[in-house]
Amino acid sequence: MAEPVNNAPSTATRHVSLNESLIFEKSAPGKRGMELPPLDVPAVDGDSALGSEFHREAVDGLPEVSEIEVIRHFTRLSTWNYAIDLGMYPLGSCTMKYNPRVNEFVARLEGLATEHPLQPVELSQGCLRILRVLERFLLEVTGMDAITLQPCAGAQGEYAGIAIIRAYLENQGNPRKKVLVPDSAHGTNPATAVTAGYEVLNIRSDASGRIDMSHLAEYVSDDVAALMVTNPNTLGTFEKDIAQAAELLHAKGAQLYMDGANMNALAGIARPGDFGVDVMHMNLHKTFSTPHGGGGPGAGPVAIKKHLEPFLPIPVLAEKADGSLFWEANRPKTIGRLRAFYGNFGVLVRALAYALAYGPGMVEATRDAILNANYIRKKLEDVYDLPYNQPCMHEVVFSDARQKKNGLNTMDIAKRLIDYGFHPYTTAFPLIVPGALMIEPTESESREELDRFVAAMRAIAAEAEQSPELVKTAPHSARVGRLDEVGAARKPVLRWKPR
Amino acid sequence: MRYLPKSNAERRAILSELGLESVEQLLQSIPESCRLKRPLDVPGPLSEKEIIDYFRARASENAAGYTSFLGAGVYNHLRSVVADSLLQRGEFLTSYTPYQAEISQGTLQAIFEFQTMMCQLTGQEVANASMYDGSTAAAEAAMMAVRLTNRRRIVVSRALHPEYRQVVNTYAEHLHLEVVEAGFDGSTGQTDLAATRGMVNDATAAVVVQSPNFLGVLEPVPQFAELAHGAGALVVVAIAEAVALGAVRAPAEADIVAMEAQSLGLAPSFGGPFAGVIATREKFVRQMPGRLAGQTTDHEGRRGFVLTLATREQHIRREKATSNICTNQALCALAVTMHLSLLGKEGLREMAGQNLAKARYAVAEFEKLPGVRRAFSGPFFNEAVLGFPCSVRIINQELLRDRIIGPLPLGPFFAEQTKRGLLCVTELHSRQDIDRLVAATRRALDSLGMASREAVSTQAER
Q: Which residue does chain A place closest to B212, by CA atoms?
C-alpha cells in the first residue's frame, strides 16, 4: 500500500493531486486570486470611519493564494469525491438521481440569480410566477390543497408540518402531547416532533415491515396529535393500510403526517391527498432532482389539506384579481415565519425545470425507479439475506445476516463496494433491519450500470466466503484507507491552526 | 425521455427476467383506492430549449437592468467566475453528504477549510459546516443557549433583522420560551443597553444582538457580553453582512455567533439558497447543531477528514438530538470557501474598505439634499438609514422611472419610520451609480415639492 505521503508535500513520489494540502498551507503573504476595480470615491481611514474600538485591520489567517492555485486546489479536491456523474450512487432513501445541467443554467440566469427578495413586487412577477407554477405542479402530484415552498430542507419541512398540526389543534383548544413515529422512521421524524414540543411514542412494525395496525390502534388516543409515517416506508414497501390509519387517527381528532422523502416511488402513481394524508413534505433534492451538492442546499415544501390552510407559515403567495402575484403576510393564525425571505428560491427554480422537462411523463421515471429496484432485488436475493421477501417499490433492503457468519457486516461490504467503483448503499438503516443494506438505484441507471453493480455485489458476496479479510480491510483503492472516526470524536480537531 | 437511460426493449427484457409482463404487477401492494387512475394534469414535457426559453421569459418579468440599493440581509458583492465554474464540477455538485469518508475527502476537506475560515472571520473557536441561513442560525443559536444555560428567557434586540426576529419567535413559541424585545436608542441606532439590562434576569438564557444591526449600525458587543455574563446569560451575535468582518472587529466576546455568509460569494437569488453558520466556543461544541468535519488519520497515518461528533445529530440521537437539521447548505458553504480563497486576506480587506468609503460618499452626497439626513449617529459599515422629508415609498416610485431601486422603506418594519429608508452601497456601485441615485432623488423631491419645506421637515425628522 501507499506510503504516507500526505504530510510530506515536498517529497511527492506520485501524482501531486494525492498530496493536496490545505488551502492555508499554500498561503504566502501578498498573493491573491481576485482583484477589485479601483476605488472611484475618496478612500477613508478605518480607524476614523469606525472608531478604533470597532475597526480591525485584516482577518488574520485567511489564505493568500493566486487564481491558478485556487483552481488546482479545488479541482484536485473534487477528484477525491464520488458523484452521480461518475456512476451509480445507490444510497437508499437519498434518491441520488441525475441532476440535469439545464437546471443549473436557468438558475443562474440574469433576472433570476440577480434578484433581491425585497425588491418591489411589481418587479418580481417573474420570480413569483415560477413559484406559483411549481406550487401548482406539486399540488397536482400530491393531491393536496395548499402548499408552502418556504422550508429549506426535509427536516425544516417536517418542522413546519408538525407546527401546523400543533397550531390547528391548539386552535381547537388542546395541542395534545404525543406524536407517534414508526420504528422504521428516519431520525429526523422524532427529532422534529421534540423540536415542536411533542413527546415521541414509537410504533412497532408488523411481520411485513409495515406499521402494526393493532399497535397503532392501541396508541391512538385523545392525547395524540399526529402519526408521522413515511410512505413508501424505509423498507421500500407501500403502507397498504394507510387509509385505515388515517381513519383511525381522524376518529380521535389526530392528524396524519406523511414524510414524502420517498415520493420518487409515487409520483404519477398514487397521491397522498387521495389516501387520507393531512400534511406532508417533499424533498425536492430527492424526487425533483436538485443537486445534493455534498449535503445541500435542499428544499422541503409542505403540502396540506384545506382545513390547515390558515396555519401556513408567512408569507403566503397570493393572487390579485388582475392575475398579479404578491406575498400575503397578514394571517392571524399562521405558525409564523420559518426563515428570512421565501425559501431556497434557486433550488425551487431547478425543481421546476426538472418538473417541466417530464410533465405528465414523470410517471415513467417512477416506473423505471421501481423496475430498477426490483431487478436488483431479483439479482441479489440468492446471495444476500432479504428479511422482508416481497416486491419492493423504489428501494430494496437486504441484511448482512449471511456475511455475518464470516465476521463481516454491512459496513465492510459497503466499503468494499468502493473498490468496485460504486458509492456504498445506505448502511445500518432502517433500524428494524439489523445490518441493513438499503439500495435505491433510482430511474437514472441504465441496464449496463445495474448489471455492473449486481456483478460487484455478487463478487463481494463470493469474497466474503473465500477471503473475508479482503472485505474487512476495504477500501483498498481509495485515496485514504478507513479513517479513525473514534479518534476524531475523542480529540476533535475542527479547524486548521497555524503552527 | 432524454433523462431516462433505457429503451423499451430493455425495459421488457428486465421485466421478463423478473417473470413479469408489466410494471403494474409490481404495484399490487398499493390498494386500488389509493391509485391515481389518470395522467397527471401538469404542464410539459419541455425540451431543453423550451425550458431555457421559459425561464428567460420569467427572468424578463423581474428587475434585470435596474440598479438596486437594497441590502437588509441580502447583499450584492463582487463574485468571481472562477468559483462558480469550480462549483459546477459534477464531483462537487452531484455528491451526497460525505458519510462515506474514503470517497468524500474533497467535500470533507473543503468543509474543514470552511469551518476554519468562519472561525477566523468571527473570532470564535469552532464553526459548523453550515445552517440553512442567517435567520435559522439565529433561532438555533438562541435554542442552543437555552440548552446550555437551562434557562428559558431570550432577550432580543429590536434592531435584529425583523425577519430573523420572526423566525426566533416561531421556534421559541413551540418550546414555550419567553422572548422579550429590547428597543434601540433613537439617536445612535444601537440597541439600548440600559433597557437591555432591565430585561436580563436570572431566567435569561441569551441576549441576541446583530452587528451591523438592521439599521446598519455596529453594536458594542463587549458591553453586551459583559452585561449578559454578569447575569449568567450568554450573548448571541447575529451577522447578516459578513463582508463587514473585513473591517470590523470580530465579535470574539460572543458566546455564539449566528452568521449569514451570503455576501461572501453567493448570488442574491431572490433570497436563497444561502449559507448560515453557527460559531462558538470549544467548550460549547457538544450543544452545537449541525454537521462538523474533523481531522483524523487512516490506518497508515495519512491525514483525512470525517464527519464527527455525530452523537449530537438526529440520525444517531433521534429524539435526543440537539436539532432536527439534516440536509444543510453544503454547496453554498463550498462556494463561500472558494470565494474567500480567491479574495484572501488582502482582497477582503480591500473590499470592506471600498464599502466603507462608498457608503460614506453616498451618505455625504445625500446629506447635500434638502431635508435628507442620516437618521442615526452610531458607526456604520455599508448600510445607513436615511431620513427624508416625505414617504420613502413615494420617492422610490419616482426613482423606478430612472430604473433605480431606492433605499428600503422602513415603514413596514417599524411603524414610526415611514420617512426613513435603509440605503446599502457596496463596492459594486460605481461613483456614477451613486451620483445618479442622488440626482434622481433630488429630482423626485423637487417634483414632490419638498425643497421648500426643508427646514420644517428636517426639524421633524430629528
A: A54
| 8 Å CB contact of A370 and B56 | no
Same domain for B413 and B392, yes or no, is yes
Which ipTM score applies to this complex?
Answer: 0.96
Please tell me whether residues B445 and B362 are part of one structural domain. Answer: yes
- pLDDT greater than 60 at residue A121: yes
Retrieve residue A329's grid coordinates.
Answer: 403576510
Give DSSP secondary structure letters for A179-198. EEEETTS-THHHHHHHHTT-
- Rounded to whole angstroms, the maximal C-alpha distance in chain A is 77
A482: number of Cβ within 10 Å: 19
- B454 Cβ partners below 8 Å, 6+ apart? B370, B371, B389
Give dist(CA B357, CA B354) in Å, integer: 5
Q: How far away is chain B from the Cα of A407, in angstroms, using its nearest Cα?
A: 20
Please state, rounded to an integer, the average pLDDT across all residues of chain A.
94
**pLDDT at A18 (0 to 100):** 61
Question: Which CATH number belongs to the domain containing residue B300 in this structure?
Answer: 3.40.640.10
Cis amide leading into A315 (omega within 30): yes
* Contact with chain A for residue B150, Cβ under 8 A: no
Contact status of B431 with chain A (Cβ, < 8 Å): yes
* B364 close to A (CB below 8 A): no
Q: How confident is the model at residue A12 (pLDDT cuts 50, 70, 90)?
A: very low
Contact call for residues B278 and B140 (beta carbons, < 8 A): yes
Cross-chain residue pair B272–A296, CB shorter than 8 Å: no
Q: Which residues of B touch A56 (CB under 8 A)?
A: 245, 247-250
Q: Which of residues 43-102 of A touch B (CB under 8 A)?
A: 43-44, 46, 49-51, 53-65, 67, 70-71, 73-86, 89, 91, 94, 96, 98-100, 102
**DSSP single-letter state for residue B18:** T
- Domain range enclosing B251: 81-339
Instruction: Mention every residue, 6+ apart, whose C-beta is less than 8 A from residue B194.
Output: none
User: pTM of whole model > 0.90?
Assistant: yes
- pLDDT, one tens digit per residue, over A348-392 is 999 999 999 999 999 999 999 999 999 999 999 999 999 999 999
**A342 inside 8 A of chain B by CB:** yes
Q: Residue B284 corresponds to which cell in the numbers above?
A: 460549547
Domains of chain A: 9-78 (no CATH), 105-360 (3.40.640.10), 365-485 (3.90.1150.10)
* B286 and B383 assigned to the same domain: no
Report how far residue B110's alpha carbon sits from residue B115's, in angstroms, rounded to the nearest whole number: 9
